[in-house]
Amino acid sequence: MSASPNTSPTVPMTQLATQPPTIKLVVIDVDGTLLNSQHQVSARTEAAVKAAIAQGVQVMLATGKTRGAATSLIKRFDLKTPGIYSQGLMVYDGDGNVLHQQTLDAAISRLVITFAEDRGFVVLAYSGTRILMRARHEEAIQGLMRYHETEPEVVGPLQNLLSTEPINKLVAVGDPRQVKALRWQLNIQIGDQAKLVQAGVPNMLEVVPAGSSKGSALRQVLQTLQIPADQVLAIGDAENDIEMIRVAGIGVAMGQAEQQIKDAADHVTATNDQDGVAEALERFVLKKPEPEPEPAPESSASTPPEAAAAPGTPDAEASEADDPAEPAADNTADATPAASTPDTPPQATPGGAWYKPAADASDDAPDDASDDAPDKPDDPADKPPSEPGASSSTTTR
């Protein structure tokens, strides 16, 4: 028994290769990506983000900071989508309710706090939208304020809160060279029990739960929104954006990003000071206006109806015969008006003008003689005239 033919339409492979999926969700890192080096949103970037939202595309923030640091951006763009915060450890819905969160193991937190503080680092503990610190440290506080974070709360020894406060992540602040050494030392101390990451800020080292990332949080959000990954555009600039860039169907690295981020991305856009986010949105998301169709060029092979008939053609002869200034020639009977020969199809002259041939002797042949003649295939020249205003052209092969 033969299988029934497949009647579903098929798409050519060339078309599949050249048609990117429609982007339904754009995920944007904040510092170093959406914001320029002055921690501001440029006019072009703002216009591009708002145009994407107006087009029906969902826009979502994904940052290592708390949701409180992004409040002004949420209001500025009137975002109703979920958001990824604290390196993906906190996921909120559009109303600010917690959808998912991850916390550090208390024993790991205690080890990291003690080890870092003993070496002179300032340690910050992130708990939801709160930032906690042992004692007031102006330089650390000013650094947080530059990134629009809320002012930390001074709570005394952080170890005393580990049994009562959920800690999402710890941040050690210090000299960039010492931070680099601390990362190597902590990696030996905690191994794979936690994850060490930097968010493009050389004087800060973050300790987060193992397996956590913006990418894993994005997967959870996509399940909630029921959006496939290939319909997602993600833009970032730092180490903490790599997993998110890889999850998205189109991953974009900022122009000033380190090479490892560019290697993980599908495309590299301009820097954050050159409107890199706007450039990516204009290329992959925003619909371009359709160009107006150009008028069709006039064919040189067609003769307009107003054009005079060429000398020597039947039309010219008929025109001369109808000219009241000259007497009609003896052959005027041959130039029979079109109305008197309705069964004679019009024919085309080499110039493309349509005319009706004069009746000849074959028109007087008896009907039975024509009935005995074999049928001829249709002559291409025996086609009816085109609609008014249409032109016919002649192609030489």
Structure described in brief:
The protein is of the alpha/beta class and 397 residues long. It is built from 13 helices and 16 strands.
Describe the structure.
The protein has about 400 residues and is α/β, with parallel strands linked by helices. Among the domains are: about 20-100 and about 210-285, 3-Layer(aba) Sandwich (Rossmann fold), CATH 3.40.50.1000; about 105-210, Hypothetical Protein, Haloacid Dehalogenase-like Hydrolase, Chain: A, domain 2. Helices cover about 30% and strands about 15% of the residues. It has 13 helices and 16 strands. The chain has helices at about 15-20, 30-35, 45-55, 70-75, 105-120, 140-145, 175-190, 215-225, 240-245, 260-265, 275-285, 315-320, 365-370; strands at about 25-30, 60, 85, 90, 100, 120-125, 130-135, 155, 170-175, 195, 205-210, 230-235, 250-255, 265-270, 345-350, 355. The strands form four sheets. It has a six-stranded mixed beta sheet with strand order 8-7-6-9-11-10, with helices on one face. Helix 3 packs parallel to helix 11 (about 275-285). The longest helix is centred in the middle third of the chain and has 15 residues, at about 175-190. It is elongated.
